[in-house]
Specification:
The chain is of the alpha+beta class. Helices cover 43% and strands 12% of the residues. Strand 6 and strand 7 form a beta hairpin.
Length: 344
C-alpha cells in the first residue's frame, strides 16, 4: 500500500464522513448517488436521493417507470440530462445485463451518463475494485499534493493526474471503499477550493503546494471567458379555468424532456407565434418583471408574459402541449424558473 493511501485511510476512519445514506455496498444506490452528486452538493442531494429511493427502491422499478415520473422527482436538481441518462441506464441494466448491475469499471462505463471516474467510484464502493477516481475534489487534492501546474481540464494535465491517481491506489481491494471515500472527503472538507485547512490534512507534510505556499494557486484555474447573455420571453397562457399551458421541451438540450412554458424571442412575436405554431389566438396582458436564471455556461434573462385565450379558442391536450393546474404543474417535471414563477 502506498504511504499516501495509508495516511488517507487512517484519516478517513477518524475524520471522514460515515453517515451518508448511500454509504452501502449496493451498486444501485451507489450509482444513483454518484449521478446525483455530479455538480451538485451533498446537502442538496440527500433529500432528493431519499425521495427517489422511496419511489424507485431498485433498478427494476426505475427501468419500468415512465420518464415523466423520473423527471418529476428530479425537478429542481438541475442538469436534467442526468435524469434521462439514469432512466436509460436502468433499462440498459435490465436489458443488457439481465437486471444485475455490471461489476467492472469498463462495463459500468458503457451505461449512459457514466464516465471513467464515476464508473471507478461505483466499482470501488460496491465491489472493492482497485480503480482510480478523478473527480473535482480529487483533482484539487492531487494537483496541490504533487505540485502539478496547468488547468486540470486540459488533456495533458488530466492524463498526468490519472497516472498519478493509479499509482497511489492501495494494494488491497478491501481498502478501496475507505480510500475512495477519503479522497472525496478530504477534498470536500479539508483541501477546499478556498482557505484549505492544511493543519488538519493527513498528507500536508509532503504536500508541494503547502511547502511552497501555492495553495491558492493550485489547481490552476480554467482560463476565463466572458459569460454569454441570452434573453427569452416565457408565455404564461391561461385558459378560462385558470390552467396554464405547458409545452414539452425537446428530449435533448436545456431542460430536455421537461414541461415548460412556450417561448418566443420577444413580446412582439408572442401573438404570431401562438397563432402560427400553436394554433391559438391569445390576448397579451402586461408583462411581469424580468428575472435572471444562471446556467453553467450562460445567463438567461427571462421576461414572463401573461396571456389569456381569445374568445372561442380551445386547445386539446396532446403529446407536446398540455393544460396544467398550478398543483399539477408543481408535481410535474418542470424547470426551476417555472417553479419560481408558480411559487410567486
Amino acid at each position: 500500500m502506498s504511504d499516501f493511501s495509508t495516511r488517507l485511510i487512517a484519516w478517513q476512519g477518524t475524520h471522514g464522513r460515515h453517515d451518508l445514506p448511500w454509504q452501502v455496498a449496493d451498486a444501485y444506490r451507489v450509482w444513483l448517488s454518484e449521478i446525483m452528486l455530479q455538480q451538485t452538493q451533498v446537502a442538496t442531494v440527500i433529500d432528493y436521493y431519499q425521495r427517489f429511493l422511496l419511489r424507485f427502491p431498485d433498478i427494476a422499478s426505475l427501468a419500468a417507470a415512465p420518464l415523466d415520473d423520473v423527471l418529476a422527482l428530479w425537478s429542481g436538481l438541475g442538469y436534467y440530462s442526468r435524469a434521462r441518462n439514469l432512466h436509460k441506464a436502468a433499462q440498459a441494466v435490465m436489458n443488457d445485463f439481465g437486471g444485475e448491475f455490471p461489476r467492472t469499471p469498463a462495463e459500468i462505463e458503457t451505461l449512459p451518463g457514466v464516465g471513467r471516474s464515476t464508473a471507478a467510484a461505483i466499482a470501488a464502493f460496491s465491489f472493492d475494485t482497485r480503480s482510480a477516481i478523478l473527480d473535482g475534489n480529487v483533482k484539487r487534492v492531487l494537483t496541490r499534493w504533487a505540485g502539478i501546474a496547468g488547468f486540470p481540464g486540459q488533456k495533458a494535465i488530466e492524463n498526468r493526474l490519472w497516472t498519478l491517481a493509479e499509482s497511489l491506489l492501495p494494494a488491497n481491494g478491501h481498502d478501496m471503499p475507505a480510500y475512495t471515500q477519503a479522497q472525496m472527503d478530504l477534498g470536500a472538507t479539508v483541501c477546499t477550493p478556498k482557505k484549505p485547512a492544511c493543519l488538519a490534512c493527513p498528507v500536508s507534510s509532503d504536500c508541494v503546494a503547502r511547502i511552497t505556499g501555492r495553495q491558492t494557486e493550485l489547481p490552476t484555474p480554467k482560463p476565463k471567458k466572458a459569460v454569454p447573455e441570452r434573453r427569452t420571453v416565457m408565455l404564461l397562457i391561461r385558459d378560462d379555468a385558470g390552467r396554464l399551458l405547458l409545452e414539452r421541451r425537446p428530449p435533448t438540450g436545456i431542460w430536455g424532456g421537461l414541461w415548460s412554458l412556450p417561448e418566443t424571442a420577444t413580446t412582439l412575436d408572442a401573438v404570431a407565434h401562438c397563432r402560427d405554431r400553436l394554433q391559438l389566438a391569445i390576448e397579451l396582458e402586461p408583462a411581469l418583471a424580468d428575472f435572471v436564471h444562471v446556467f453553467t455556461h450562460f445567463r438567461l434573462t427571462i421576461t414572463p408574459q401573461p396571456a389569456t385565450l381569445a374568445a372561442a379558442t380551445a386547445l386539446a391536450d396532446n403529446d407536446g402541449l398540455r393544460w396544467f393546474s398550478r398543483a399539477e404543474a408543481l408535481a410535474a417535471g418542470i424547470p426551476t424558473p417555472l417553479r419560481r414563477l408558480l411559487a410567486a
